[in-house]
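Researcher: Next sequence.
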Amino acid sequence: PEDRAEFLRIKQERRAELAKVLSPQELENFELSTSATATMLKREMTAFNATDEEFRKIFRLTQPLDEEYSLGRPIRDPEDVEGNAKRKQVERDLQEQVRAALGEERYAELERSRDPFYKSLVKAAEDAGIPRTSAAQAFEVQKVVREETARVFNDPALTPEQRQQAVAAMQAQADRTLVELLGEQGANALK
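Model: Next structure:
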């Protein structure tokens, strides 16, 4: 904690010195290209395709909280129940602020883009020269399959064989839909 406090103090001093010679826009641009927060957000949002203004809004909301709570890193002290609860609340509040800044539709896209499977779909679609919208449609297909699979496995009225047959049929249909959306090459890239 002492080292962290010292680090933050030095960082704030550096920012104050930069603010003396840079305009607010130049300072923000500098931080967008050099800060750990911006790097973390770029990494997290690779599949989101944020506009410059959307990225800046998210950065402005995230940076002060990231500096205080190290949002991009795992929880430092698992035994600090109170501190961890506060951090989780800060993270929830931040997501609500991001939702308000982006609007429901774009926030849903941001949430989807955080899913590792969606990132794989986007990469496969890009590699195959297929529009990103097809990757989003393919993700929704797979999401429905996952939900239906869970429903089938939790259905006490079905025998184990019926469950396996139902899941196999759903997966076969999903595979056909993926080929329709992503083409043979894109669908095979996901297997």
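Model: The longest helix spans residues 160-189. The CA atoms of residues 81 and 87 lie 10 Å apart.
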